């Protein structure tokens, strides 16, 4: 089955800890994205990548980091600098061939202990 | 500048009633996408509108793009409990990312 897999589904972070959220896609999409969603809110863009080894900051990149070493993978690290990390994190991918429609993973819920 | 405003924030209807959500922008949109997110789920693409004045239908859902390409609407006829969720409009930016509206949460009373 083609799709986007995010793991883990739930994650807990201790004070001062960095945590990494995984996002893998087998859709052969060139672009990948990370969004943050707070309760009752829309999605806000954290980082995006249009090609391997290249990525750009979105609207709320502070306290987060990413890498894009492989086309299929776009992990997000929530660093200790992110003081309010509790949220629902969504990964998405797209391709220009499909009019940039975004396909989302099931998300990771991050909470602070 | 690149934001999209979505109204209402929340709507509670009786099953069988109609529902409409509106998406407005202060600047011209190249296109608009609509997504649905079920409670506890992830956004799922519904439709993309590109042309001025465009109207597209999917069963009971009707999507419109304004003549000036600054607004869009989603209308659901005769709501069902399966329509429950949050409906987002989203505009594409020059960087191929999406800027989402804040969403309209629809609750349907059986």
Q: What report would you give on this structure?
A:
The complex is a heterodimer of chains A (113) and B (110). Chain A is mainly β and 113 residues long. Chain A contains no helices and 11 strands. Chain A has strands spanning 4-7, 10-13, 19-25, 31-37, 43-51, 54-57, 64-66, 76-78, 87-94, 103-104, 108-112. In chain A, the strands form 2 sheets. In chain A, strands 2, 4, 5, 6, 9, 10 and 11 form a 7-stranded mixed β-sheet that branches. In chain A, β5 and β6 (54-57) form a beta hairpin. By secondary structure, chain B is an all-beta fold. In chain B, the strands form 2 sheets. In chain B, strands 2, 4, 5, 9, 10 and 11 form a 6-stranded mixed β-sheet that branches. In chain B, strands 1-3-8-7-6 form a 5-stranded antiparallel β-sheet, with no helix packed on it. Chain B is globular, with a radius of gyration of 13 Å. The mean pLDDT of chain B is 94.
**How many β-strand runs of chain B?**
11
* Low-confidence sequence ranges of chain A: none
| Main sheet properties of chain A | 7 strands, mixed
The number of helical elements of chain B comes to 0
Detail the poorly predicted runs of chain B: none
> Quick check: average pLDDT of chain B?
94
Number of E-type strands of chain A: 11
Shape of chain A: globular
Structural class of chain A: mainly beta
- Terminal CA distance of chain A reads 35 Å
Helix content of chain A: under 10%
What is the H/E order of chain A? EEEEEEEEEEE
What oligomeric state do these chains adopt? heterodimer
End-to-end C-alpha gap of chain B: 40 Å
Interface with most residues: A-B, 25 and 20 residues
Radius of gyration of chain B: 13 Å
Mean pLDDT of chain A: 93
* Secondary-structure element order of chain B, N to C: EEEEEEEEEEE
Computed Rg of chain A = 13 Å
**Alpha-beta content class of chain B:** mainly beta
């Amino acid at each position: 089955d083609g799709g986007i897999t995010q793991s883990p589904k739930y994650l807990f972070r201790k004070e001062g800890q960095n945590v990494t959220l995984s996002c893998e896609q087998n859709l052969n999409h060139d672009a990948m994205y990370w969004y943050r969603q707070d309760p009752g809110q829309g999605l806000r863009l954290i980082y995006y990548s249009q090609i391997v080894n290249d990525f750009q900051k979105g609207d709320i990149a502070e306290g987060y980091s990413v890498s894009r070493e492989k086309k299929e993978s776009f992990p997000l690290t929530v660093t200790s600098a992110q003081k309010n990390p509790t949220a629902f994190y969504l990964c998405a991918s797209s391709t220009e061939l499909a009019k940039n429609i975004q396909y989302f993973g099931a998300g990771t819920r991050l909470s602070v202990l | 500048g690149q934001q999209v405003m979505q109204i209402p924030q929340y709507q509670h209807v009786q099953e069988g009633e109609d529902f409409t959500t509106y998406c407005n922008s202060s600047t011209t949109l190249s296109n608009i996408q609509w997504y649905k997110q079920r409670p506890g789920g992830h956004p799922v693409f519904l439709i993309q509108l590109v042309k001025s004045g465009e109207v597209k239908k999917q069963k009971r859902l009707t999507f419109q793009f304004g003549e000036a390409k600054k607004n869009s609407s989603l209308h659901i006829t005769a709501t069902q409990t399966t329509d429950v969720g949050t409906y987002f409009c989203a505009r594409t930016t020059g960087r191929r990312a999406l800027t989402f509206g804040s969403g309209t949460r629809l609750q349907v009373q059986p």
